[in-house]
Amino acid sequence: YRLSSRILGLLAMGVPPSEVLATTFTRKAAGEILERVLLRLAEGASHPAKAQELGKDAHPILTQPEECRGLLSRLVANLHQMNVGTLDAFFVQMARSFFLELGLPPKWTIADEPTRDRIRTEAVLVALAEADRAQLVELLRMLNRDAAHRPVHATLLDKMDSLLAIRRQLDPRAEDPWSPEFGVTEELSPETLRNRALALATRLLDLEVPSTQRGDPMKQWVTARRTASETISRLDWDGAFGSGIGAKVLAGEDSFSRKTIPPEFVELFREVIRLARIDLAPELRREVRALGRLAEVLEAAFDRAQRRVGAYRFNDLTYLLGGSDPTGNRDDLGYRLDQRIRHLLLDEFQDTSLEQWQALQPLASELLSGHLDEHTVVIVADP
């Protein structure tokens, strides 16, 4: 309703339909916006009360049914100029106008599902041939923790999209984005690590558990305390935090088995969490760095396969449009798009991804830098 009101207001002020771009996320939603614009004008043209509503919500001139009829007639005659569609459709239009800057082949197309699968398979085969075999085996072991006997090819196919998405979201200014810190700076020898774990496990057994109404120690707490102590003593962090009191503390919850977790338990388990981080951080860093190298190989192979086939996914175009300013700071943006957009209306903005906004930013920045009466950006979003 807000978006259709704004479109009607702009049209009532004499703004040509071609200068208004309204985007949403589905073709159905785009059709509903356009349908609502036409329906509200038609209602205003035939019902004075509806015209009064339009005058209040869109523009005062539309309080007169004859003005609604005139605008409806002009709009229908120029309906082909209305820019109400999906973000994906607009990005395809931008990509066709800037294919050279984006490094796209001249006759590129949107990949259908079989083509997407073929490109992904080709990229995986190249990555398997180029990757370090020892590192690859270790990585696959890590990626397949829940399915240890899954085929290598199937694993990489399943994980490739996630790895590429992570790589594309990394800050290009980061010196070493595949080296997470995990909030750990301390390093311990294996012996020191075991001694600290044993000390914490022993301290845990000395803590007093909550009592029943009869004053007896609660059996669930006694069992959970003993199990946690055993898992901590053997550095079994999955066991220590997969269930029981440790899982509750790790999740930030304050009760276990219908009893508030005493402060001394919370503090001890926080010490165990810090020790687990010290123990796990070195291996996790190695794994993440290796994942970064694998993602780099996969991305290069994927890009080559896409260019060879000449087919791209919608999110690939969005990523290319949002990177290294291919369309920004250009005086010919409107000319290249074969239209002069002066008013941008974004629906469901809360669902807009960072990559989508980066692709839109050159256009939005140009509009926001202009005079308020000449250029506008309207954002509709849920709180």
From TrEMBL:
One of its GO terms (cellular component) is cytosol. The keyword Hydrolase applies. Gene3D superfamilies: P-loop containing nucleotide triphosphate hydrolases (3.40.50.300). Residues 1-383 form the UvrD-like helicase ATP-binding domain. InterPro entries: DNA_helicase_UvrD/REP, P-loop_NTPase, UvrD-like_ATP-bd. The keyword Glycoprotein does not apply. Keywords: ATP-binding, Helicase, Hydrolase, Nucleotide-binding. It holds the Pfam family UvrD-helicase. Signal peptide: none annotated. Coiled coil: none annotated. Transmembrane segments: none annotated. GO terms for molecular function: 3'-5' DNA helicase activity; ATP binding; DNA binding; hydrolase activity. GO terms for biological process: recombinational repair. PANTHER family: ATP-DEPENDENT DNA HELICASE SRS2, UVRD / RECB / PCRA DNA HELICASE FAMILY MEMBER. This is UvrD-like helicase ATP-binding domain-containing protein.
